[in-house]
Design goal:
Order of helices and strands of chain A: EEEHEEHEHHHEHEHEE
CATH topology of chain A: Rossmann fold
Number of helices of chain B: 10
Number of strands of chain A: 10
Number of helices of chain A: 7
Number of domains of chain A: 1
Number of strands of chain B: 2
Oligomer: heterodimer
CATH superfamily of chain A: P-loop containing nucleotide triphosphate hydrolases
Strand content of chain B: under 5%
Strand content of chain A: 25-35%
CATH architecture of chain A: 3-Layer(aba) Sandwich
Largest interface: A-B, 24 and 16 residues
Helix content of chain B: over 70%
Distance between the termini of chain A: 26 Å
Chain lengths: 225, 287
Protein backbone atom coordinates (compact mmCIF):
# COMPACT_ATOMS: atom_id res chain seq x y z
CA UNK A 1 0.00 0.00 0.00
CA UNK A 2 1.32 3.49 -0.93
CA UNK A 3 2.15 5.94 1.83
CA UNK A 4 -0.12 8.97 1.76
CA UNK A 5 1.61 10.78 4.60
CA UNK A 6 5.29 10.22 5.35
CA UNK A 7 7.30 11.67 8.21
CA UNK A 8 11.01 11.80 7.62
CA UNK A 9 13.06 12.34 10.79
CA UNK A 10 10.74 15.13 11.93
CA UNK A 11 11.67 17.33 14.87
CA UNK A 12 9.27 19.90 16.38
CA UNK A 13 10.84 21.97 19.12
CA UNK A 14 9.12 24.68 21.17
CA UNK A 15 10.81 26.64 23.93
CA UNK A 16 13.61 24.09 24.04
CA UNK A 17 11.23 21.13 24.40
CA UNK A 18 10.96 18.57 21.62
CA UNK A 19 7.33 17.58 20.97
CA UNK A 20 8.55 15.36 18.13
CA UNK A 21 12.09 14.09 18.26
CA UNK A 22 13.24 12.41 15.07
CA UNK A 23 9.82 11.02 14.19
CA UNK A 24 9.72 8.80 11.10
CA UNK A 25 6.72 6.84 9.85
CA UNK A 26 4.62 6.25 6.75
CA UNK A 27 0.81 6.31 6.92
CA UNK A 28 -0.83 4.33 4.12
CA UNK A 29 -3.73 5.67 2.09
CA UNK A 30 -7.25 4.69 3.14
CA UNK A 31 -8.76 3.39 6.35
CA UNK A 32 -8.43 4.66 9.89
CA UNK A 33 -4.97 4.93 11.42
CA UNK A 34 -5.11 5.42 15.16
CA UNK A 35 -2.30 7.54 16.60
CA UNK A 36 -1.87 5.92 19.97
CA UNK A 37 0.33 6.91 22.86
CA UNK A 38 0.42 8.44 26.33
CA UNK A 39 -0.31 12.11 27.10
CA UNK A 40 2.51 14.40 25.99
CA UNK A 41 3.84 11.87 23.48
CA UNK A 42 3.46 14.35 20.59
CA UNK A 43 0.21 13.01 19.07
CA UNK A 44 -1.49 16.39 18.60
CA UNK A 45 1.71 17.96 17.24
CA UNK A 46 1.92 15.14 14.71
CA UNK A 47 -1.55 16.02 13.44
CA UNK A 48 -0.90 19.77 13.42
CA UNK A 49 2.16 19.42 11.17
CA UNK A 50 0.07 17.44 8.68
CA UNK A 51 -1.91 20.55 7.71
CA UNK A 52 0.75 23.10 8.65
CA UNK A 53 -0.81 24.62 11.73
CA UNK A 54 2.68 23.86 13.01
CA UNK A 55 5.84 23.36 11.00
CA UNK A 56 8.75 21.03 11.72
CA UNK A 57 11.95 22.47 13.14
CA UNK A 58 13.78 19.79 11.13
CA UNK A 59 12.85 16.90 8.85
CA UNK A 60 10.14 16.62 6.21
CA UNK A 61 6.48 15.74 5.97
CA UNK A 62 5.41 14.32 2.61
CA UNK A 63 1.82 14.31 1.38
CA UNK A 64 1.32 12.05 -1.62
CA UNK A 65 5.10 12.16 -2.14
CA UNK A 66 5.31 15.98 -2.09
CA UNK A 67 7.01 17.89 0.69
CA UNK A 68 4.16 19.86 2.28
CA UNK A 69 6.54 22.76 2.91
CA UNK A 70 6.32 23.42 -0.83
CA UNK A 71 2.52 23.14 -1.07
CA UNK A 72 0.04 25.99 -0.83
CA UNK A 73 -1.05 25.81 2.83
CA UNK A 74 -4.63 26.91 2.11
CA UNK A 75 -5.14 24.25 -0.57
CA UNK A 76 -3.42 21.67 1.65
CA UNK A 77 -5.84 22.44 4.50
CA UNK A 78 -8.84 21.95 2.22
CA UNK A 79 -7.48 18.51 1.34
CA UNK A 80 -6.34 17.64 4.85
CA UNK A 81 -9.22 18.59 7.17
CA UNK A 82 -8.90 18.69 10.92
CA UNK A 83 -11.27 18.24 13.83
CA UNK A 84 -10.00 19.40 17.21
CA UNK A 85 -10.38 17.95 20.67
CA UNK A 86 -12.56 20.80 21.93
CA UNK A 87 -15.54 21.77 19.79
CA UNK A 88 -15.18 25.27 18.34
CA UNK A 89 -18.57 26.38 17.01
CA UNK A 90 -18.49 29.83 15.41
CA UNK A 91 -21.13 32.44 16.29
CA UNK A 92 -24.28 32.01 14.20
CA UNK A 93 -26.46 29.14 13.14
CA UNK A 94 -25.36 25.67 12.15
CA UNK A 95 -25.90 26.69 8.52
CA UNK A 96 -23.67 29.75 9.07
CA UNK A 97 -20.97 27.44 10.43
CA UNK A 98 -21.16 25.17 7.41
CA UNK A 99 -21.03 28.18 5.08
CA UNK A 100 -17.84 29.42 6.75
CA UNK A 101 -16.24 26.23 5.47
CA UNK A 102 -18.08 26.14 2.13
CA UNK A 103 -19.71 29.47 1.25
CA UNK A 104 -21.45 28.00 -1.81
CA UNK A 105 -22.89 24.98 -0.02
CA UNK A 106 -26.48 24.21 -0.99
CA UNK A 107 -29.12 23.23 1.53
CA UNK A 108 -29.04 19.68 0.16
CA UNK A 109 -25.26 19.46 0.64
CA UNK A 110 -25.59 20.74 4.18
CA UNK A 111 -28.33 18.23 4.95
CA UNK A 112 -26.20 15.41 3.51
CA UNK A 113 -23.26 16.26 5.69
CA UNK A 114 -25.48 16.56 8.77
CA UNK A 115 -27.00 13.16 7.94
CA UNK A 116 -23.48 11.70 8.15
CA UNK A 117 -23.44 12.91 11.75
CA UNK A 118 -26.88 11.36 12.35
CA UNK A 119 -28.47 14.83 12.43
CA UNK A 120 -31.37 16.13 10.37
CA UNK A 121 -31.79 19.28 8.29
CA UNK A 122 -33.86 20.84 11.09
CA UNK A 123 -30.56 21.50 12.87
CA UNK A 124 -29.48 24.06 10.25
CA UNK A 125 -31.31 26.94 11.93
CA UNK A 126 -30.09 26.21 15.44
CA UNK A 127 -27.72 28.56 17.23
CA UNK A 128 -24.37 26.74 17.06
CA UNK A 129 -23.03 28.35 20.22
CA UNK A 130 -26.01 27.11 22.26
CA UNK A 131 -25.42 23.43 21.50
CA UNK A 132 -24.13 20.87 23.98
CA UNK A 133 -20.49 19.78 23.68
CA UNK A 134 -21.39 16.60 21.86
CA UNK A 135 -23.77 18.31 19.46
CA UNK A 136 -21.25 21.07 18.77
CA UNK A 137 -18.52 18.54 18.04
CA UNK A 138 -20.73 16.77 15.50
CA UNK A 139 -21.39 20.14 13.83
CA UNK A 140 -17.65 20.89 13.81
CA UNK A 141 -16.92 17.56 12.14
CA UNK A 142 -19.72 18.20 9.64
CA UNK A 143 -18.15 21.62 8.99
CA UNK A 144 -14.82 19.97 8.19
CA UNK A 145 -16.46 17.32 6.02
CA UNK A 146 -18.35 19.79 3.86
CA UNK A 147 -14.99 20.83 2.36
CA UNK A 148 -14.70 17.21 1.07
CA UNK A 149 -11.22 16.56 2.48
CA UNK A 150 -9.05 13.72 1.24
CA UNK A 151 -7.56 13.18 4.69
CA UNK A 152 -9.29 13.66 8.02
CA UNK A 153 -7.20 14.51 11.09
CA UNK A 154 -9.06 13.86 14.34
CA UNK A 155 -7.45 15.03 17.55
CA UNK A 156 -9.28 13.05 20.26
CA UNK A 157 -12.62 14.24 18.86
CA UNK A 158 -14.64 12.24 21.41
CA UNK A 159 -12.62 13.21 24.50
CA UNK A 160 -15.04 15.90 25.64
CA UNK A 161 -18.38 14.63 24.32
CA UNK A 162 -21.18 12.40 25.59
CA UNK A 163 -21.48 8.71 24.67
CA UNK A 164 -24.18 9.27 22.02
CA UNK A 165 -22.11 11.87 20.19
CA UNK A 166 -18.97 9.75 20.53
CA UNK A 167 -20.70 6.78 18.95
CA UNK A 168 -22.12 8.96 16.13
CA UNK A 169 -18.64 10.37 15.40
CA UNK A 170 -17.02 6.93 15.45
CA UNK A 171 -19.64 5.51 13.09
CA UNK A 172 -19.37 8.48 10.73
CA UNK A 173 -15.59 8.26 10.51
CA UNK A 174 -15.72 4.52 10.00
CA UNK A 175 -18.25 5.03 7.21
CA UNK A 176 -16.11 7.74 5.59
CA UNK A 177 -12.99 5.57 5.80
CA UNK A 178 -14.86 2.71 4.15
CA UNK A 179 -15.79 5.21 1.43
CA UNK A 180 -12.15 6.08 0.72
CA UNK A 181 -11.16 8.89 3.14
CA UNK A 182 -7.90 8.45 5.01
CA UNK A 183 -8.37 9.19 8.71
CA UNK A 184 -5.74 9.77 11.39
CA UNK A 185 -7.43 9.50 14.78
CA UNK A 186 -5.52 10.45 17.91
CA UNK A 187 -6.63 8.37 20.86
CA UNK A 188 -5.29 7.02 24.10
CA UNK A 189 -8.26 4.71 24.61
CA UNK A 190 -7.35 1.14 23.57
CA UNK A 191 -11.02 0.10 23.38
CA UNK A 192 -11.77 2.94 20.99
CA UNK A 193 -8.75 2.08 18.85
CA UNK A 194 -10.08 -1.47 18.67
CA UNK A 195 -13.51 -0.23 17.56
CA UNK A 196 -12.50 2.25 14.89
CA UNK A 197 -8.98 1.67 13.60
CA UNK A 198 -7.50 -0.49 10.87
CA UNK A 199 -3.98 0.11 12.08
CA UNK A 200 -2.15 1.73 14.97
CA UNK A 201 0.73 4.18 14.81
CA UNK A 202 2.34 4.10 18.23
CA UNK A 203 4.14 7.15 19.49
CA UNK A 204 6.10 7.74 22.65
CA UNK A 205 8.28 10.67 23.70
CA UNK A 206 8.07 12.17 20.25
CA UNK A 207 9.27 9.05 18.46
CA UNK A 208 7.45 6.50 16.37
CA UNK A 209 7.30 2.96 17.72
CA UNK A 210 6.04 1.70 14.37
CA UNK A 211 2.77 1.16 12.59
CA UNK A 212 0.91 -2.13 12.81
CA UNK A 213 -2.49 -3.59 12.02
CA UNK A 214 -4.88 -3.54 14.95
CA UNK A 215 -4.55 -6.73 16.92
CA UNK A 216 -6.37 -7.67 20.04
CA UNK A 217 -5.17 -9.18 23.24
CA UNK A 218 -6.71 -12.67 23.28
CA UNK A 219 -7.55 -12.33 26.97
CA UNK A 220 -9.00 -8.80 27.12
CA UNK A 221 -10.11 -8.31 23.53
CA UNK A 222 -8.35 -4.93 23.58
CA UNK A 223 -5.35 -3.40 21.88
CA UNK A 224 -2.26 -4.26 23.93
CA UNK A 225 -0.81 -1.18 25.60
CA UNK B 1 -12.54 88.06 33.92
CA UNK B 2 -10.64 87.71 30.66
CA UNK B 3 -9.60 84.08 31.22
CA UNK B 4 -6.02 84.92 32.14
CA UNK B 5 -4.62 82.81 34.98
CA UNK B 6 -1.78 84.23 37.03
CA UNK B 7 0.73 82.52 39.29
CA UNK B 8 -1.48 83.24 42.29
CA UNK B 9 -4.43 81.57 40.59
CA UNK B 10 -2.28 78.57 39.77
CA UNK B 11 -1.07 78.33 43.36
CA UNK B 12 -4.66 78.58 44.62
CA UNK B 13 -5.78 75.74 42.32
CA UNK B 14 -3.14 73.56 43.97
CA UNK B 15 -5.46 73.60 47.00
CA UNK B 16 -7.62 71.13 45.09
CA UNK B 17 -4.64 68.81 44.72
CA UNK B 18 -4.29 69.07 48.50
CA UNK B 19 -7.97 68.09 48.80
CA UNK B 20 -7.34 64.97 46.67
CA UNK B 21 -4.28 64.07 48.75
CA UNK B 22 -6.28 64.72 51.93
CA UNK B 23 -9.02 62.31 50.79
CA UNK B 24 -6.34 59.71 50.12
CA UNK B 25 -4.97 60.12 53.67
CA UNK B 26 -8.47 60.11 55.20
CA UNK B 27 -9.56 56.97 53.33
CA UNK B 28 -6.12 55.31 53.71
CA UNK B 29 -5.75 54.89 49.95
CA UNK B 30 -1.95 55.33 50.12
CA UNK B 31 -2.20 57.43 46.95
CA UNK B 32 -1.20 60.82 48.41
CA UNK B 33 2.42 60.56 47.22
CA UNK B 34 1.30 59.56 43.73
CA UNK B 35 -1.23 62.43 43.63
CA UNK B 36 1.37 65.01 44.63
CA UNK B 37 3.98 63.56 42.29
CA UNK B 38 1.49 63.46 39.37
CA UNK B 39 0.44 67.05 39.98
CA UNK B 40 4.03 68.29 40.28
CA UNK B 41 5.13 66.37 37.22
CA UNK B 42 2.18 67.59 35.14
CA UNK B 43 2.88 71.17 36.18
CA UNK B 44 6.57 70.95 35.28
CA UNK B 45 5.82 69.24 31.97
CA UNK B 46 3.19 71.82 31.06
CA UNK B 47 5.48 74.72 31.96
CA UNK B 48 8.28 73.25 29.84
CA UNK B 49 5.90 72.63 26.95
CA UNK B 50 4.49 76.15 27.34
CA UNK B 51 7.96 77.65 27.12
CA UNK B 52 8.85 75.49 24.13
CA UNK B 53 5.58 76.30 22.36
CA UNK B 54 6.16 80.00 22.98
CA UNK B 55 9.50 79.66 21.20
CA UNK B 56 7.99 77.52 18.47
CA UNK B 57 5.07 79.81 17.76
CA UNK B 58 7.03 83.07 17.85
CA UNK B 59 6.14 85.29 14.92
CA UNK B 60 8.53 84.71 12.04
CA UNK B 61 9.56 81.24 13.20
CA UNK B 62 9.70 78.74 10.30
CA UNK B 63 6.76 76.34 10.02
CA UNK B 64 9.29 73.52 9.70
CA UNK B 65 9.82 73.71 13.46
CA UNK B 66 6.14 72.95 13.98
CA UNK B 67 6.33 70.01 11.57
CA UNK B 68 9.40 68.76 13.45
CA UNK B 69 7.50 69.09 16.74
CA UNK B 70 4.61 67.08 15.22
CA UNK B 71 7.02 64.37 14.06
CA UNK B 72 8.51 64.29 17.56
CA UNK B 73 5.04 63.86 19.08
CA UNK B 74 4.35 60.95 16.71
CA UNK B 75 7.60 59.20 17.66
CA UNK B 76 7.03 59.73 21.37
CA UNK B 77 3.40 58.52 21.14
CA UNK B 78 4.60 55.36 19.39
CA UNK B 79 6.98 54.68 22.26
CA UNK B 80 4.27 55.36 24.86
CA UNK B 81 1.91 52.92 23.07
CA UNK B 82 4.66 50.26 23.15
CA UNK B 83 5.23 50.76 26.87
CA UNK B 84 1.52 50.66 27.67
CA UNK B 85 0.98 47.42 25.76
CA UNK B 86 4.27 45.50 26.09
CA UNK B 87 2.55 42.21 25.28
CA UNK B 88 1.85 43.41 21.74
CA UNK B 89 4.83 42.54 19.55
CA UNK B 90 6.60 45.43 17.82
CA UNK B 91 3.79 47.89 18.44
CA UNK B 92 5.94 51.05 18.36
CA UNK B 93 6.77 50.93 14.65
CA UNK B 94 3.20 50.03 13.74
CA UNK B 95 1.75 52.79 15.90
CA UNK B 96 4.14 55.35 14.41
CA UNK B 97 3.12 54.29 10.89
CA UNK B 98 -0.56 54.55 11.89
CA UNK B 99 -0.10 58.02 13.45
CA UNK B 100 1.78 59.16 10.35
CA UNK B 101 -1.01 57.87 8.07
CA UNK B 102 -3.59 59.54 10.30
CA UNK B 103 -1.64 62.82 10.28
CA UNK B 104 -1.39 62.83 6.49
CA UNK B 105 -5.15 62.26 6.11
CA UNK B 106 -6.55 64.47 8.86
CA UNK B 107 -4.08 67.34 8.58
CA UNK B 108 -4.46 67.09 4.81
CA UNK B 109 -8.22 67.60 5.20
CA UNK B 110 -7.92 70.36 7.81
CA UNK B 111 -5.32 72.42 6.04
CA UNK B 112 -5.89 71.25 2.46
CA UNK B 113 -9.54 72.29 2.63
CA UNK B 114 -8.58 75.43 4.58
CA UNK B 115 -10.74 74.64 7.61
CA UNK B 116 -7.92 76.20 9.60
CA UNK B 117 -5.02 78.26 8.25
CA UNK B 118 -1.76 76.31 8.16
CA UNK B 119 0.27 77.99 10.90
CA UNK B 120 2.33 76.80 13.81
CA UNK B 121 -0.35 77.87 16.28
CA UNK B 122 -2.94 75.66 14.50
CA UNK B 123 -0.73 72.76 13.40
CA UNK B 124 0.84 71.91 16.77
CA UNK B 125 -2.30 71.88 18.96
CA UNK B 126 -4.44 70.09 16.36
CA UNK B 127 -1.77 67.45 15.74
CA UNK B 128 -1.37 67.08 19.50
CA UNK B 129 -5.07 66.42 20.00
CA UNK B 130 -5.20 63.95 17.11
CA UNK B 131 -2.14 62.05 18.29
CA UNK B 132 -3.15 62.05 21.97
CA UNK B 133 -6.60 60.62 21.33
CA UNK B 134 -5.34 58.18 18.72
CA UNK B 135 -2.66 56.88 21.09
CA UNK B 136 -5.25 55.77 23.64
CA UNK B 137 -7.33 54.10 20.93
CA UNK B 138 -4.21 52.44 19.49
CA UNK B 139 -3.37 50.82 22.82
CA UNK B 140 -6.99 49.71 23.21
CA UNK B 141 -7.29 48.13 19.78
CA UNK B 142 -3.88 46.43 19.93
CA UNK B 143 -4.50 44.94 23.36
CA UNK B 144 -8.00 43.80 22.51
CA UNK B 145 -6.93 42.18 19.25
CA UNK B 146 -4.07 40.27 20.87
CA UNK B 147 -6.40 39.21 23.72
CA UNK B 148 -9.05 38.03 21.25
CA UNK B 149 -6.65 36.05 19.09
CA UNK B 150 -4.92 34.52 22.11
CA UNK B 151 -8.06 33.66 24.07
CA UNK B 152 -9.90 32.34 21.01
CA UNK B 153 -6.92 30.59 19.50
CA UNK B 154 -8.87 27.32 19.12
CA UNK B 155 -11.53 29.11 17.12
CA UNK B 156 -8.99 30.96 14.97
CA UNK B 157 -7.09 27.76 14.23
CA UNK B 158 -10.35 25.99 13.40
CA UNK B 159 -10.94 28.68 10.77
CA UNK B 160 -7.38 28.32 9.44
CA UNK B 161 -7.79 24.53 9.34
CA UNK B 162 -10.81 25.02 7.08
CA UNK B 163 -8.51 26.72 4.58
CA UNK B 164 -9.34 30.34 5.40
CA UNK B 165 -6.48 32.79 4.77
CA UNK B 166 -5.19 34.47 7.92
CA UNK B 167 -6.76 37.84 7.08
CA UNK B 168 -10.18 36.25 6.70
CA UNK B 169 -9.75 34.04 9.78
CA UNK B 170 -8.90 37.12 11.85
CA UNK B 171 -11.76 39.28 10.56
CA UNK B 172 -14.32 38.61 13.36
CA UNK B 173 -11.70 39.38 16.01
CA UNK B 174 -10.50 42.51 14.21
CA UNK B 175 -14.11 43.73 14.14
CA UNK B 176 -14.51 43.13 17.87
CA UNK B 177 -11.27 44.97 18.62
CA UNK B 178 -12.16 47.91 16.37
CA UNK B 179 -15.62 48.20 17.91
CA UNK B 180 -14.18 48.25 21.42
CA UNK B 181 -11.65 50.93 20.49
CA UNK B 182 -14.06 53.15 18.58
CA UNK B 183 -17.06 52.89 20.91
CA UNK B 184 -15.67 55.17 23.65
CA UNK B 185 -14.92 57.87 21.08
CA UNK B 186 -18.39 57.54 19.56
CA UNK B 187 -19.98 57.76 23.02
CA UNK B 188 -17.87 60.82 23.84
CA UNK B 189 -18.90 62.45 20.57
CA UNK B 190 -22.57 61.71 21.28
CA UNK B 191 -22.42 63.11 24.81
CA UNK B 192 -20.56 66.29 23.88
CA UNK B 193 -22.44 69.37 24.90
CA UNK B 194 -25.00 67.43 26.93
CA UNK B 195 -22.90 65.65 29.52
CA UNK B 196 -19.69 67.63 29.34
CA UNK B 197 -18.09 70.59 27.65
CA UNK B 198 -14.89 69.51 25.93
CA UNK B 199 -11.50 70.96 26.69
CA UNK B 200 -10.85 72.95 23.52
CA UNK B 201 -14.21 74.69 23.71
CA UNK B 202 -13.89 75.41 27.42
CA UNK B 203 -10.40 76.80 26.87
CA UNK B 204 -11.56 79.09 24.07
CA UNK B 205 -14.53 80.39 26.08
CA UNK B 206 -12.28 81.01 29.08
CA UNK B 207 -9.91 82.88 26.76
CA UNK B 208 -12.75 85.18 25.74
CA UNK B 209 -13.74 83.73 22.34
CA UNK B 210 -17.50 84.05 21.59
CA UNK B 211 -19.24 80.77 22.52
CA UNK B 212 -20.60 80.10 19.03
CA UNK B 213 -17.13 80.42 17.52
CA UNK B 214 -15.77 78.13 20.25
CA UNK B 215 -18.50 75.60 19.44
CA UNK B 216 -17.62 75.59 15.75
CA UNK B 217 -13.95 75.01 16.52
CA UNK B 218 -14.86 72.25 18.97
CA UNK B 219 -17.12 70.56 16.43
CA UNK B 220 -14.30 70.49 13.89
CA UNK B 221 -11.91 69.13 16.52
CA UNK B 222 -14.39 66.40 17.56
CA UNK B 223 -14.87 65.25 13.98
CA UNK B 224 -11.14 65.31 13.42
CA UNK B 225 -10.56 63.20 16.50
CA UNK B 226 -13.24 60.71 15.43
CA UNK B 227 -11.69 60.44 11.97
CA UNK B 228 -8.15 60.15 13.28
CA UNK B 229 -9.09 57.47 15.83
CA UNK B 230 -10.83 55.47 13.09
CA UNK B 231 -7.85 55.73 10.73
CA UNK B 232 -5.28 54.87 13.40
CA UNK B 233 -7.15 51.90 14.84
CA UNK B 234 -7.83 50.32 11.47
CA UNK B 235 -4.20 50.70 10.39
CA UNK B 236 -2.97 49.21 13.67
CA UNK B 237 -5.49 46.34 13.63
CA UNK B 238 -4.79 45.33 10.04
CA UNK B 239 -1.05 45.80 10.51
CA UNK B 240 -1.10 43.64 13.63
CA UNK B 241 -2.87 40.82 11.80
CA UNK B 242 0.03 40.73 9.35
CA UNK B 243 2.45 40.51 12.26
CA UNK B 244 0.59 37.95 14.35
CA UNK B 245 0.24 35.45 11.51
CA UNK B 246 3.00 33.97 9.41
CA UNK B 247 3.05 34.26 5.64
CA UNK B 248 1.91 30.62 5.48
CA UNK B 249 -1.18 31.44 7.55
CA UNK B 250 -0.22 30.16 10.98
CA UNK B 251 -1.04 32.05 14.16
CA UNK B 252 2.14 32.84 16.08
CA UNK B 253 2.33 32.12 19.83
CA UNK B 254 0.92 35.15 21.68
CA UNK B 255 2.23 36.20 25.08
CA UNK B 256 -0.11 36.95 27.98
CA UNK B 257 -0.30 40.42 29.48
CA UNK B 258 2.44 40.87 32.04
CA UNK B 259 1.34 40.86 35.69
CA UNK B 260 2.80 44.31 36.11
CA UNK B 261 0.84 47.46 35.33
CA UNK B 262 2.82 50.59 34.35
CA UNK B 263 5.98 49.00 35.63
CA UNK B 264 4.62 48.58 39.17
CA UNK B 265 3.91 45.23 40.73
CA UNK B 266 0.17 44.68 40.98
CA UNK B 267 -0.78 44.56 44.63
CA UNK B 268 -1.91 41.21 45.89
CA UNK B 269 -4.77 41.78 48.40
CA UNK B 270 -3.98 38.59 50.31
CA UNK B 271 -0.32 39.56 50.55
CA UNK B 272 -1.26 43.05 51.76
CA UNK B 273 -3.53 41.59 54.43
CA UNK B 274 -0.81 39.22 55.58
CA UNK B 275 1.69 42.11 55.70
CA UNK B 276 -0.75 44.27 57.69
CA UNK B 277 -1.46 41.47 60.16
CA UNK B 278 2.27 40.83 60.55
CA UNK B 279 2.87 44.56 61.17
CA UNK B 280 0.12 44.78 63.76
CA UNK B 281 1.43 41.66 65.48
CA UNK B 282 4.89 43.23 65.69
CA UNK B 283 3.44 46.48 67.12
CA UNK B 284 1.42 44.53 69.68
CA UNK B 285 4.53 42.57 70.61
CA UNK B 286 6.42 45.87 71.13
CA UNK B 287 3.61 47.24 73.28
Amino acid sequence: MNALLSFDDVVVERDGVRALDGFSAAVPEGGVTAVFGPSGAGKSTLLRICNRLDIPTAGRVLFGGDDIAGLNPLRLRRRVGMCFQRPTPFPGTVADNLRVAEPRATEAQMEDVLALMALTGSWLDRDATALSGGEAQRICLARTLITRPHVLLLDEPTASVDAVAARAIEQAVRQLADGGITALWVSHDPAQVQRIADRVLRIEQGRSLGIQPVTTDPDTGQVPR
Amino acid sequence: MNGQVGWVGLATSLALVAVAAGISVWQRLSLQRQILWAAARALIQLLLVGETLALLLEPGRSLWWSWAWTAGMILYAGDVARRRAPEVPRLAALAIAAFAAMAVITLGVVFGLRIFPLQGRTLVPIAGMMIGNSMTATVLVARRLVDELRDKRDEVEARLALGQPSGQAATPYVRTALRSALSPQIETTKATGLVFLPGAMTGLILAGVPPLQAVLVQAVVMFLILGSVAVTTVVVALGLVRRLFTSDHRLLPLPRRPDTASGHRRRNPLRLTVTKVAGRTRRLAKD
